[in-house]
């Protein structure tokens, strides 16, 4: 591996498509060389609905990035989202053969394969198999069991799976541009790479990436992924609610959300009015600030409540144990008061977060919109040592989507 | 034993026989010898013309003899007509005295068929509830959906026949499931309860994606719709799910069906599933769903009302209308709405769906626990907005 390597992260979002070109340094940090970005068309709720248009948009974003960075982009890392992605935790067990009592590398693979022996719905494939920890003869939390002496090796995995055709459609869209795909990564896993530090992962944290069309979330506890999920709800819904509630055109609602929007519940207070100036095809009007906040507050509350419900459905009481609190990132995290609402719903501290520990074009990583794409390059850097020569289609079909071995960092 | 009474009943049994050749335990009773003669069902009892009650007395012994030995009796027909409305309760009472499990599956006529028919049907239904173990009710008025002007009379009657037929089919299927998973009569009685209008869905499909297609059709059946809102399944207390198909019905299909229904219905809902792989058709899969709604408790409703009112109170004060007055108004409204539903009267509801979904109008809906999340939260929760004070 050369001392410096280029990683390109591609995120096909509902609002925008962005390409981040990063340079991996030998000391383990990354530096952003440049960002290519275009507004997204043909994507709804995180899933591609118009292949040709999306291909065009990706092409524009790539050219934008190439021009800014002077790097010729050949291979990309792709973030994937959509409500079809589901997850569960499972344990794989492997009894060592009689003639051998020391764990070798092969055994780790076997144990992973065993953990994946569950019946997925026929149309689904594995996307990630994220290691949570090994158990050696019942001893918990073993980090590296190789060369340890034991009879029974067990390992817990967090397994993410999704509908094959939907994942493949995203890949097809990119392959049609003659781009190579290094790997497909769950959006929330990518965001988490930059949104939380290792220390926070150990303490326990809930990462919520609220984008335009989806809300991706991931729970870390004791340093590993315990739960993940995707809700097909996001900033677009907030805008749509405003548009319906206040009877405004979509664009006007979007602008109002960005300029004046707040998620704080007015609790009956009269907050006065906002005067909207008239514009081409739009008569000016007065709207109540309290109404605007009620609409946003209701939607944001609901999104968080659904996240909470989803986590508690499989891990009761876990939210209370997350000592690092809730980390909110993604484009919609810029909404005023969103952290306060999160604190009310989850009853633990909530923080806004964005990419940290990166150098380069600073304006870029200060914007939480880019968390996923930056996270992708960081993820790429962390796993690039383990990549095997295989097409990404083969990988997915074979079900070794997660080539990621070792603890997820 | 399935017994069809009256013209509608004869029609249902004919269809049952045509679509499931070789089915046994069918019988028809009617006073129209022409319709009886045309029917392909072999066991027939002809009622003499004239007063139906006298007719019953004359065929009572015949009837008793022919149902002797069967474990259960399922009576079906369209209420509203003279024959079915009078005969079904009498036959049910007779079957009950013989100690048989007695079920009835009846249609309630459309509102436009006349007041007299409606009254006759309602009084018959009241009697049926008294004698039968359970009664499944198909309200024709619910079939036309929210917009009666849009449905043609022909389609409406066709639909009503189809549904009555398929619900008889489902009940019959649930009664005689050969397994491997059975729905017991106890489950059935529990799900049908004391004959609130039945929420019933039926779908069938074949081919590679048969499960999803059939399930979708079943969930979209007109009788699964609430008067207001998307689907009854979201707040159902209990759901009976019967999959009936060929021998190659896979375990995965069964699992997906259960998961899907559970996902929509939520975890609180009790789901009873049955599988019947004895169907004669080669590849067709049929899905039957009966959902029992959570009986709304008035006290709970009132409590919720107070909460909502607390939230709207700022608006109330800005408009200078005392909160109490609104409270009584809303309550009156709720009571009126309730008594309306008790009389089985339905009122057309203006569909606001497309408006409420805004830009997500054409996209795949996001349904979680029966709620369409694309509709603004504040609308779904019924929260009032503040109008700008001038």
Short structural description:
The complex is a heterodimer of chains A (409) and B (390). Chain A is α/β, with parallel strands linked by helices.
Q: What is the structural class of chain A?
A: alpha/beta
In CATH terms, the superfamily of the domain at 197-352 in chain A is ATPase, nucleotide binding domain
Largest interface: pair, residues per side: A-B, 35 and 30 residues
Task: Tell me the β content of chain A.
Answer: 25-35%
* Strand order of the biggest β-sheet of chain A: 11-6-1-2-3-19
Reported CATH architecture of the largest domain in chain B? 3-Layer(aba) Sandwich
Overall pLDDT of chain A: 87
Look at the structure and give the CATH class of the largest domain in chain B: Alpha Beta
Give a quick account of the main beta sheet of chain A: strands, pairing sense, barrel closure: 6 strands, mixed
**Count of separate DSSP helical elements of chain B:** 14
What would you report as the Rg of chain A, rounded to the nearest angstrom?
A: 22 Å
Q: Would you tell me the structural class of the helices and strands of chain B?
A: alpha/beta
User: What gap, in angstroms, lies between the N and C termini of chain B?
Assistant: 71 Å
Rounded to an integer, what's the Rg of chain B over CA atoms?
A: 23 Å
| Elements of chain B, N to C (H/E) | EHEHEHEHEHEHHEHEHEHEEHHHEEH
Principal-axes shape call of chain B: globular
Low-confidence stretches of chain B: 296-306, 308-346, 348-354
Total DSSP E strands of chain B: 13
Approximate helicity band of chain B: 40-55%
